[in-house]
């Protein structure tokens, strides 16, 4: 397919190429399929960057009288929110966006592990392990000796 430069410097299909693509609409094909094929032919020859999709779902939900919002079934199943009592974390951003994140309820007896201070220690420990800052002992006595505890 021939291309001609546009005033912006981007390449676009020539008129002959566009006419050739448009011909598919008049060559006995009817309806939306022909239009989609024509648009696909023209778009696929474009050198413009393809848009980046940030999500695989877009839709609208209604807020009910008591503030209830029902998530679409496909999303509830995808994120494990299809069981009664499932929780969603909501964050209001400064730019006016409400973010929803699936959340897992943590039993009170395990909440200490998820505290920010403990998680920071976990991250430091993971970094030490990844960097090879570990020591292996052959027995308990060797470990105890390394602690330098005065008896």
From TrEMBL:
<protein>
    <recommendedName>
        <fullName>SpoVT-AbrB domain-containing protein</fullName>
    </recommendedName>
</protein>
<feature type="compositionally biased region" description="Polar residues">
    <location>
        <begin position="41"/>
        <end position="55"/>
    </location>
</feature>
<feature type="compositionally biased region" description="Low complexity">
    <location>
        <begin position="1"/>
        <end position="28"/>
    </location>
</feature>
<dbReference type="GO" id="GO:0003677">
    <property type="term" value="F:DNA binding"/>
</dbReference>
<feature type="region of interest" description="Disordered">
    <location>
        <begin position="1"/>
        <end position="55"/>
    </location>
</feature>
<feature type="domain" description="SpoVT-AbrB">
    <location>
        <begin position="61"/>
        <end position="108"/>
    </location>
</feature>
<dbReference type="InterPro" id="IPR007159">
    <property type="entry name" value="SpoVT-AbrB_dom"/>
</dbReference>
